[in-house]
Amino acid sequence: VSIVFRGDVERGRVWQQYFRTHAPDLPFVLWPHVGPPEEVTYLVTWQPPENIAALFPRLQVLFSSGAGVDQFDFACIPSDVQVVRMIEPGIINGMIEYATLAALMHHRNFIDYDVLRRRREWSPIRVVPAQERHIGVMGIGVLGRAVLERLHSFGFALRAWNRSSRQVDGVTCFAGNDELEPFLAGCDILICLLPLTEATRGILCRKTFFALKRGAALINVGRGGHLVEQDLLDALAEGQLSAAILDVTAVEPLPSDHPFWDHPRIVLTPHIASMTQPHTAAQAVLANVRRHQTGEQLLGAIDRERGY
Ligand SMILES: NC(=O)c1ccc[n+]([C@@H]2O[C@H](COP(=O)([O-])OP(=O)(O)OC[C@H]3O[C@@H](n4cnc5c(N)ncnc54)[C@H](OP(=O)(O)O)[C@@H]3O)[C@@H](O)[C@H]2O)c1
């Protein structure tokens, strides 16, 4: 039994050190030095090699090194290989920080002030109390729930929307496609924390934007494929949306001639909302490997039919 890590070698060495200390029985090897292929039982990677079935005939679990699995081509992954996404405190804390920062930037009109600053205009905007600011989160998963909990501490009026019905303290929850519009109708700030699947691709579109309150603001920390980019530009031009903070785009890196770069009402970051932290991630994966070895259910196991 061995574990292969395929990714940044420097980060891989942190993982390797963790496994050496805490699981000396499990050889942890860094791609491309994989050792005997028939011993490879576990693979940790963001991007598996194309011929994964032939390369690792005894592979049992593929661990994504990130929170999503939408980057995988499931057709190339043998159906008996379990696919597991990354759930670890480093990702959760990073997302809490980013989503809170972005929500507060919208709440306290930072993008408006940036537009005013360029015009050298000193012009205060009325401060809206948090209780009167309605923030909606799409996706009440590991990250959506963590972000809601933190936003709750500021006293915001919170609502959230999810595929299956969920309950979160202090949050008005909506479920399923029938409740999407009533959910959107009450949002001043919309945060997308959905996984990218066939059901969610393009969900941040004109229809969604025009179902929000007029002048609402967007935060996309899901995936670039959630957003119909032209619809965002149109909604900003028409004043239906006031501003957007985007951590992800359809094409990454964003092409240099893309209109988002210069847009005064768009703040962009290069897909850094949260990052897997090697030390805590190694700990989480080792715990999952131990679960696998004792026949327990793995945390973060993917349902291939649903796509997340
Ligand atoms: N920008 C970044 O740096 C960054 C970092 C980490 C993650 N992310 C993104 O964040 C996403 C969420 O991560 P997570 O760990 O919170 O995932 P998760 O725990 O799997 O949560 C996903 C949530 O979305 C809901 N959902 C799925 N499909 C839906 C649909 N069609 N309609 C409504 N709700 C739907 C799920 O509902 P159920 O409860 O019914 O299953 C679940 O509650 C990731 O997939 C990734 O795309 C981005």
Topology:
Elements: E1 2-6, H1 9-22, E2 28-30, E3 40-45, H2 52-55, E4 61-64, E5 82-84, H3 89-107, H4 110-118, E6 134-138, H5 142-152, E7 157-162, E8 171-175, H6 180-185, E9 189-192, H7 206-211, E10 216-220, H8 229-237, E11 241-246, E12 266-268, H9 278-293
Parallel strand pairs: 1-2, 1-3, 3-4, 4-5, 6-7, 6-9, 7-8, 9-10, 10-11, 11-12
- In whole angstroms, the N-to-C terminal distance is 27 Å
Order of helices and strands: EHEEHEEHHEHEEHEHEHEEH
Profile the largest sheet: 7 strands, parallel
Bound molecules: NADP nicotinamide-adenine-dinucleotide phosphate
% residues in beta strands: 15-25%
Rg is: 21 Å
Please describe what this structure looks like:
This protein is an alpha/beta fold. Helix content is 31%, strand content 18%. The protein contains 9 helices and 12 strands. It has helices at residues 9-22, 52-55, 89-107, 110-118, 142-152, 180-185, 206-211, 229-237, 278-293; strands spanning 2-6, 28-30, 40-45, 61-64, 82-84, 134-138, 157-162, 171-175, 189-192, 216-220, 241-246, 266-268. The chain has a 7-stranded parallel beta sheet with strand order 8-7-6-9-10-11-12. Strands 2-1-3-4-5 form a 5-stranded parallel beta sheet, covered by helices on one side. α1 packs across α9 and α3 crosses α5. The radius of gyration is 21 Å and the shape is elongated. The model has no long low-confidence stretch (mean pLDDT 98). The structure holds NADP nicotinamide-adenine-dinucleotide phosphate. NADP nicotinamide-adenine-dinucleotide phosphate is lined by residues 67-68, 91, 95, 139-144, 162-164, 193-197, 199-200, 221-223, 247-248, 271, 273-274, 308.
